Here is the input.
Amino acid sequence: MTEDKNPIQVAGRLFGALEYLAEHGESGLMEISEHLGLNKSTTHRIVSSLQYMGYVRQSRESGRYELTFRIVDLSSQVMNRMDIIGIVRPFLRKLMEQTGETVHFVKREGAEIVYIDKVEAYQNSIRMVSHIGSRMPFYRSAVGKAMAANMTEQEVRDLWEASEIIRVTPSTIVDYEEFCRALGQVRANGYALDNEENETGVRCIGASLMISSDASEKPGTEYAFSISVPISRMDEERVRELSGYVLATKTAVEEAFHSSR
Amino acid sequence: MTEDKNPIQVAGRLFGALEYLAEHGESGLMEISEHLGLNKSTTHRIVSSLQYMGYVRQSRESGRYELTFRIVDLSSQVMNRMDIIGIVRPFLRKLMEQTGETVHFVKREGAEIVYIDKVEAYQNSIRMVSHIGSRMPFYRSAVGKAMAANMTEQEVRDLWEASEIIRVTPSTIVDYEEFCRALGQVRANGYALDNEENETGVRCIGASLMISSDASEKPGTEYAFSISVPISRMDEERVRELSGYVLATKTAVEEAFHSSR
DNA sequence: CTTATCGTTCCACTATGTGGAACAGGATAT
DNA sequence: ATATCCTGTTCCACATAGTGGAACGATAAG
Here is the structure.
């Protein structure tokens, strides 16, 4: 683990400011300056540069800075390139309608998974774009386990070691042996479970998708989906009922995908 | 119009590479290098820096570069901060259900408008995030005219002069006098029309929203919404019918917003 | 009125980014 | 199999481009 440096110093500072503004919203110069550990003057130049390029704007009277929608535009371009979302979405929507629960669609990115789509259950009025783009480790999500179950022992080991294992709930799996045993269960069932391992009060059922957009990735380790259900609505019997829908969705998507190639 | 320079040279290059990758997807180093007009070596350092920060990843075998979802994550954070979307969404959804047509929600940003939300008509299976974040000039959109109608003559003039007026369809308004006359119509009707002025075959009905999240902005010039309808489904009679729903939505949103403050 | 705080500008210094050149690995052509 | 062309990658001397201290102006707070 050699601690490489950023090949361009200012780059780290520019994106540091960008990320700070994304997280905290409208902010003062000193606030950003302090957070980056930089001189007021240096920070000002950095923010001015972002403003010059149209990523940041300054409130006329308060003098505070905030992000424009330029970054949202870039994000949209990236999302529009993901044709797979449009293909899979109708199936996920159907799953949501069958179960009445929220459905997530994720993609592997290194040792993490990224939410790339979401079909919200009707009763919740949260908007769809909410979590999209956010990341999560493999080891404590149903989708992660579903994908890991298709990997070789070596690949699983690498993944485990690349992750920072943190116990975020009492049920989080923090032992490698136990994780491997859980993967065995996944292989036997065809679907993966997350029993409040990531968030207390939420159980998930996930399945991998044997599809690949890129020949370099091994099928079954690139995309996965899951339904998230509050514990109150998810006893053992409902797990059995819902897992049926999940497995049906898995095969439907895989068939549709392969016939369209 | 003084041609200022970017206070940080590399910043322009970093974001130039980022934008290129967003637009073109997976690209080779030489391709980016040529587009930026930079030395191979310089480009390599720039892309490596983006990779170091997690915004870019390199395909293991092809050696080509592409964006990660990091940028989508930032975008999500920005969108989640826009509480207004969650407040307005239910009304726009209702409007879509009443009319069966696609509804857009936009925000002013300088001399342009930005799409910040969209409720797609059921028959279309395009996904929601599609255009979000993309920009459009004021002068040739229903939403832009709806907002401009609430501005002073001076403000309208400034807006017109800040825009690059381009005739994109035979109906595009490219004359300032004519634009002002159109605004008069908007004030009389309470809603704005776009008769294929931006895209041939598409008519829009838009209305401004007298709400403001920021005291610095004048109400009625910050947010607006519209419905977009193919010309085949939009004769004069249907305009009258749909404009009723649009106006009803406008007042409903404004009431809900003011009572929630 | 005084004091504190924030955003902005200036400028001398040198750390930092630059790009030519040389290298390494594949793919394609000969 | 060998040569020729592409890639992407590393190295390094040079000077350009970014740095941050200090001083300024404007606004808000005491």
Residues 29 and 95 of chain A are 47 Å apart (CA to CA). Confidence is low (pLDDT under 50) at residues 125-129 of chain A. The two ends of chain A are 41 Å apart (CA to CA).
